């Protein structure tokens, strides 16, 4: 392709209707009316040269202005600039070319709609067979957008060309209609020529075709009326009779001549129906490449082990249909196949998809998510078994479902199986994104489904009962649906029921409107039962549905049969029905008025209580939705039970939602009872904390304590004070200072004589987290006592809490020798209780112990285990911990720019997640990089900001930054009011900074003190206790102090040792490639 051809092919000009142009598929502004007229006049010449004299005469209607030629040249120049924006200066134009004695438009025929239209019409008129004639004329008619040369039609040249093209359009329309008749499709002729004949009653050929089509579709009276209307027009307007051909047709219709019926009459109200096309029976269409990718994953799993495949796409894109087609193939090849569907509405048991999977394998519900995971793992890894598990709509998955998925991905790697998950990308929440991160190392692939093309759309339309899918209808379908298979199918079913005019003349605004119209065609009794089913959820038990409607089974089945035949619902099993798509359920549900909906939920609650009394999640959902001030108190018991069951299954987000609903019910009751409210708030604290809402949990915690105090209820107060039973990784205080309200309440309750050992241990653990980082001595004493008392109590949960508290304090320097044994004891207790959250914390404590000892292989191992056992917000938290550690590893390996980039990226991601300490992560990363480079001066500004907000928190690195920048007076001033750093997880790093600052400022007293404090930590890298801070080798600080104290030999030895340590660590880390989860 030449440059000129390429430039011309990028331009598309429209004159059939308002003038417009695109360049490279982008609309361009053609300028004012005169410039647009120049372009239109050249287009009307169909590529021939138009002289400048004729152009001027036509543009100004014979009365040109004095400088008409100059004005014409300006218009041409501007148009060339618009149509060829990439043309180099001084190169000839290739679209509007100069050709003596004027200009010509040089474009391919298909680049000007009028030229393309005329060529297609001519080809269509000469086509020998009706299908080809129809196809070509349809393409031509699709280009028609209105009156040709609309803006210039008052000019003679434009009017003549416009009339010629209009005549060509009418001829094309009538010729296609004739071809439809020849092809036995009179209904399409009626649809097309009805308006045409009304607008053009004098076009006798078109009127004849319409009358004949009406007759062939069984509308003899309408056919005669059409002919009589034309007869009247010809007589009144022209004073002539109809042609002999038209008069003969009228006589033949009156006598019902057999020759008129060349094809069977097909009444338009009996168009081919869609009801025999079932959604679940329709083959996968237009997804050949994606199906091949799934087949490849199946083959690869035989050699490489477990494959994890993600299929993403918006609602209706065909994710489930594609998965079903693949599952059918797998089952036909001897695979064992099971499906788990994540519920669309509240009220399903925790981990529901995996319970469905196990039932299909013939297993019973094993109880905990951990045991569920083990059962499914056994199926995946069984000798000789090839298994496909499909998890549908995992964007709605709860925490236990995702936790089992991660467990299988980690433990089932050697199985020759495939895990296939479908999801909507726009609804992928943080939990699912964390799961993607945690399973990033598993072999697999991700497919994203887009809209179907013409071939796929046409196939679905035919499957849905549309007999004749012409190009115009196909274009409308794709335009209205964006190629979405579900939307195409629903529109097609509507067309099959109402005819092609349903989309061309009365197009609904959206697929919900289409669904509403399809539903409205069902019998009223069917719609009533569908609405009741919609209240029950995506899938409904027939016995429960019958109980809700208070009808017998036969009557229910009779009512549902039309919905089954039309594919609105399907039968996954003999005793259940399921909506073919949740949009259908939502449309039905939303059509029920709120007051009636509440009553229907009440009926559902009553029916479920009788038929499924153990289904606590569903009972709680309907209790909330049906509650009124008079029923709220009774509904509360269902909601509490549902929340407790959700919590026992580790579905903390679902549990929190139910506890919040329970609070609303307490406030809804006719006489609100603070006693009821505090019993709702107490269990909510731990659940809220486990979801990551520490600020909200703290507020709930303080509310529960306050209400219990106001009610003078010591038992409720005790339970409120020890209600924070979630695993703790970061501080649970919102403010840096002591919360005296909480601490005083804890100390007051601790003085009660009636406390059990378990209660006392829990109170002491709570005291630890109120004092950590503020009062080292008191928090350490409370941690030791809490662990001792908890061991004596025999209460495993109290012991987990105490070991968590002790391990948290052990991040500091004073309990370093007990970190590993404490973590192992916590691990054993957590496993005994089946609490994966505390199992994760135990491995996290082991991770920190390994990093402190620079055993990075072991640190990676424990980090992976901590991540594997985490769920929900804790998983996000653990992935963040590992990401920070990875960045620190890059730093210690000497890849400083990479490390700084990683810290910044982590900070940005945490900021987007709303983490309060996000900015601190970026700062701490730059601080470590500055330490490695030996210059902190660039950090003085941002460290100063932190110092102004949190005095002493970052004081010693700030002093070093000021000294590196030469601001000795400011550094000296800050040093004078500095205090030792608290003995927490940052103590070793900050004390190392303090020692170096003392050495540089010549403070011998502090230098000697820090020397003695740091000596036990020689040969260590400071800051690694925290898992996030790099403060350099402790030995380097010892060398600086030794030099200040006059021991040059010791200073040299310490600095050599520091250099050797940095080199050793760097070389070790450069040799290994990270395998930790990211």
UniProtKB/TrEMBL annotation:
GO molecular function: DNA binding
GO BP: any one term: phosphorelay signal transduction system
DNA-binding region(s), residue ranges: 3-107
Segments traversing the membrane: none
Alphabetical UniProt keywords: DNA-binding, Transcription, Transcription regulation
Highest taxon in the source lineage: Bacteria
Domain (OmpR/PhoB-type): residue spans on this chain: 3-107
InterPro entries assigned: AAA_16, AfsR-DnrI-RedD_regulator, BTAD, OmpR/PhoB-type_DNA-bd, P-loop_NTPase, Sig_transdc_resp-reg_C-effctor, TPR-like_helical_dom_sf, WH-like_DNA-bd_sf
Entry similarity comment: Belongs to the AfsR/DnrI/RedD regulatory family.
Protein name, entry field: Transcriptional regulatory protein, C terminal
Organism: Rhodococcus maanshanensis
């Amino acid at each position: 392709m030449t440059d000129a051809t390429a430039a011309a092919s990028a331009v598309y000009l429209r004159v059939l209707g308002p003038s417009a142009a695109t360049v490279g598929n982008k609309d361009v502004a053609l300028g004012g009316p005169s410039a647009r007229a120049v372009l239109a006049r050249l287009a009307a010449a169909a590529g021939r040269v138009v002289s400048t004299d004729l152009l001027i005469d036509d543009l100004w209607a014979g009365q040109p202005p004095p400088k008409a030629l100059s004005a014409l040249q300006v218009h041409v120049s501007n148009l060339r600039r618009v149509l060829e924006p990439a043309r180099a200066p001084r190169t000839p134009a290739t679209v509007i070319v100069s050709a003596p004695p004027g200009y010509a438009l040089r474009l391919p025929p298909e680049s000007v709609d009028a030229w393309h239209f005329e060529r297609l019409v001519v080809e269509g008129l000469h086509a020998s067979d009706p299908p080809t004639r129809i196809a070509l004329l349809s393409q031509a008619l699709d280009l028609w957008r209105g009156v040709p040369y609309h803006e210039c039609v008052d000019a003679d040249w434009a009017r003549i060309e416009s009339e010629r093209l209009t005549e060509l359009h009418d001829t094309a329309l009538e010729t296609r209609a004739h071809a439809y008749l020849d092809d036995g499709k009179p209904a399409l002729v009626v649809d097309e020529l009805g308006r045409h004949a009304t607008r053009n009653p004098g076009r006798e050929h078109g009127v004849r075709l319409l009358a004949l089509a009406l007759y062939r579709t069984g509308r003899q009276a309408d056919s005669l009326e059409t002919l009589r209307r034309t007869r009247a027009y010809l007589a009144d307007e022209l004073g002539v009779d109809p042609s002999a051909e038209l008069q003969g047709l009228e006589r033949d219709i009156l006598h019902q001549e057999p020759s008129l019926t060349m094809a069977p009459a097909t009444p338009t109200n009996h168009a081919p129906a869609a009801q025999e096309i079932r959604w679940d029976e329709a083959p996968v269409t237009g997804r050949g490449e994606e199906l091949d990718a799934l087949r490849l994953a199946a083959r690869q799993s035989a050699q490489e082990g477990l494959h994890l495949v993600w299929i993403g796409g918006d609602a209706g894109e065909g994710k489930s249909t594609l998965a079903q087609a693949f599952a059918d193939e797998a089952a036909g090849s001897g695979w064992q196949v099971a499906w788990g569907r994540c519920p669309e509405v509240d009220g399903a048991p925790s981990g529901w998809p995996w319970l469905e999977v196990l039932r299909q394998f013939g297993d019973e519900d094993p109880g905990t998510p951990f045991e569920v995971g083990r059962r499914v793992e056994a199926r995946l890894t069984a000798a000789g078994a090839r298994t496909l598990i499909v998890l549908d709509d995992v964007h709605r998955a709860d925490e236990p479902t995702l936790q089992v998925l991660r467990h299988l991905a980690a433990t089932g790697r050697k199985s020759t199986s495939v895990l296939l998950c479908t999801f909507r990308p726009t609804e992928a929440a943080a939990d699912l994104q964390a799961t993607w991160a945690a399973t990033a190392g598993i072999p697999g692939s991700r497919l994203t489904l887009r809209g179907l093309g013409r071939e796929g759309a046409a196939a679905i339309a035919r499957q849905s009962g549309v007999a004749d899918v012409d190009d115009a209808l196909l274009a409308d379908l794709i335009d209205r649906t964006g190629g979405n298979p579900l939307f195409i199918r629903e529109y097609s079913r509507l067309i099959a029921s109402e005819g092609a005019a349903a989309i061309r003349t009365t197009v609904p605004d959206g697929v919900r409107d289409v669904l509403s119209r399809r539903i409205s065609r069902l019998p009223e009794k069917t719609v009533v039962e569908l609405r009741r089913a919609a209240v029950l959820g995506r899938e409904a038990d027939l016995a429960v549905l019958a109980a809700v409607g208070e009808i017998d089974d036969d009557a229910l089945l009779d009512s549902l049969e039309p919905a089954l035949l039309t594919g609105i619902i399907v039968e996954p099993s003999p005793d259940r029905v399921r909506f073919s798509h949740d949009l259908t359920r939502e449309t039905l549900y939303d059509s029920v008025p709120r007051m009636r909906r509440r009553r229907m939920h009440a009926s559902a609650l009553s029916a479920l209580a009788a038929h499924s009394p153990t289904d606590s999640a569903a009972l709680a959902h309907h209790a909330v939705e049906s509650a009124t001030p008079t029923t709220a108190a009774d509904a509360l018991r269902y909601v509490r039970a549902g929340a407790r069951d959700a919590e026992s299954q580790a579905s903390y987000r679902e549990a929190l939602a139910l506890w919040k609903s329970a609070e609303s019910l307490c406030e809804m009751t006719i006489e609100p009872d603070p006693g009821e409210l505090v019993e709702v708030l107490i269990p909510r604290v731990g659940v809220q904390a486990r979801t990551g809402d520490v600020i909200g949990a703290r507020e709930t915690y303080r509310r529960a304590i306050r209400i219990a105090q106001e009610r003078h209820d010591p038992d409720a107060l005790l339970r409120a004070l020890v209600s924070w039973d979630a695993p703790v990784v970061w501080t649970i205080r919102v403010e840096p200072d002591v919360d005296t309200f909480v601490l005083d309440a804890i100390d007051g309750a601790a003085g009660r004589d009636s406390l059990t050992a378990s209660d006392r241990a829990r109170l002491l653990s709570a005291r630890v987290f109120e004092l950590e980082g503020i009062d080292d001595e008191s928090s350490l004493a409370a941690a030791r006592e809490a662990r001792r008392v908890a061991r004596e109590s025999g209460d495993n949960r109290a012991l987990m809490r105490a070991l968590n508290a002790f391990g948290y304090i052990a991040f500091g320097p004073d309990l370093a020798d007990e970190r590993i044994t404490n973590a192992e004891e916590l691990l054993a207790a957590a496993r005994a209780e089946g609490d994966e959250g505390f199992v994760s914390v135990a491995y996290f404590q082991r991770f920190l112990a390994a990093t402190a000892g620079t055993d990075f292989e072991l640190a990676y191992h424990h980090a992976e285990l901590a991540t594997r056992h985490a769920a929900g917000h804790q998983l996000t938290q653990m992935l963040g911990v590992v990401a920070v550690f990875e960045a620190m590893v890059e730093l210690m390996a000497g890849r400083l720019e990479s490390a700084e980039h990683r810290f910044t990226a982590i900070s940005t991601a945490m900021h987007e997640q709303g983490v309060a300490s996000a900015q601190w992560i970026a700062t701490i990363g730059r601080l470590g990089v500055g330490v490695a480079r030996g210059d902190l001066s660039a950090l003085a500004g941002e460290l100063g900001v932190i110092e102004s907000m949190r005095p002493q928190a970052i004081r010693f690195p700030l002093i070093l930054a000021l000294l590196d920048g030469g601001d000795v007076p400011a550094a000296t001033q800050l040093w004078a009011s500095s205090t030792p750093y608290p003995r927490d997880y940052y103590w070793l790093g900050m004390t190392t900074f303090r020692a170096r600052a003392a050495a540089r400022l010549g403070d011998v007293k502090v230098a000697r003190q820090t020397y003695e404090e740091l000596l036990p930590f020689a040969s260590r890298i400071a800051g690694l206790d925290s898992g996030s801070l790099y403060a350099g080798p402790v030995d380097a600080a010892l060398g600086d102090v030794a030099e200040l104290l006059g021991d040059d030999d010791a200073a040299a030895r310490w600095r050599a040792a520091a250099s050797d340590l940095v080199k050793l660590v760097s070389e070790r880390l450069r040799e290994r490639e990270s395998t930790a989860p990211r």
